[in-house]
Amino acid sequence: MIIREYTVADPGGGPYAITTGPDGALWFTLVHSGRIGRLVPGEEPTGHRLDPACGPTIIATGPDGALWFTEYRAHRIGRITTGGTVSEFPLPTPDCGPFGIAAGPDGALWFTQTAADRIGRITTEGRVSEFPLPVTGAFPSAITAGADGGMWFTLNQANAIGRIGMDGTITVHPLPTEAAAPVGIAAGRDGALWFVEIAAGQIGRMTTDGRVTEFPLPDRAARPHAITPGPDGEQWFTEWGGNRVGSITVDGVIRVHDLPTPRSEPHGIALGPDGALWAALEPGALARITRS
């Protein structure tokens, strides 16, 4: 395994989430400095300033060819074009703490509201709808589009995985392990949902009919944070507490790899435009991960 790190921000800038944009560049959030970064592999990084205190967290490509992101501390949804033009949309519920965001099959963006027990939907024109969850204090976190036409999300404090249909119907699936605290979630190429259990040190797999399989990590204190499909049919994840990245096959074979820099606090991970995995490291770098 070859891992190289590329500095993209000052120490403390806080690279947090990362995605590949429609322009063939990596786009990432800088949660502590209030910026959106852009990196074409092999070139120098560039950045776009936001409100320094807005706390940009998760970023995703929208159906309109722009990048959409949550502003966790400013309680807004943001949009940035590949040319760098930023728009921001206030949300109806005060202090709702938007976190996860993903494009849905209906041409809108869907997002979680950690502090309001709601799932939100925003059209590319900025119209917002909100859907209350059937549980309270659930801290809905990451969200992804499933192969079944619904949006799936983690309920970090409710110890469950949720699904919302395009009609707003919500289903909650409890997890077998108590206090597992799921965070990241992604749709696998096998048609299932894969998620990380940050407090239990496990990777979970859920079929669209709600059947769960859990795979313990070699280091149960690794605090896995984010997960994404890789180029090889495996799922790749970050170990925030273990200073590692790892992969898991469909049948549960896990491999983990140490990051070169101690205490690099890996958060988001995504497949890059160059076919490599890229992870966001909070002290100010992106890590590129390849097998050779």
From TrEMBL:
Residues engaged in binding Mg(2+): 265, 282
Binding site for substrate: 225
SUPFAM superfamilies: Calcium-dependent phosphotriesterase
EC number annotated for this UniProt entry: 4.2.99.-
Keyword NAD: no
Catalytic residues (positions): 267
An example Gene Ontology molecular-function term: lyase activity
The UniProt record lists the keyword Metal-binding: yes
UniProt entry keywords in alphabetical sequence: Antibiotic resistance, Lyase, Magnesium, Metal-binding
Role of this protein: Inactivates the type B streptogramin antibiotics by linearizing the lactone ring at the ester linkage, generating a free phenylglycine carboxylate and converting the threonyl moiety into 2-amino-butenoic acid.
Known partners and oligomeric status: Monomer.
Family: Belongs to the Vgb family.
Protein name: Virginiamycin B lyase
Organism: Actinomadura algeriensis
Underlying gene: vgb
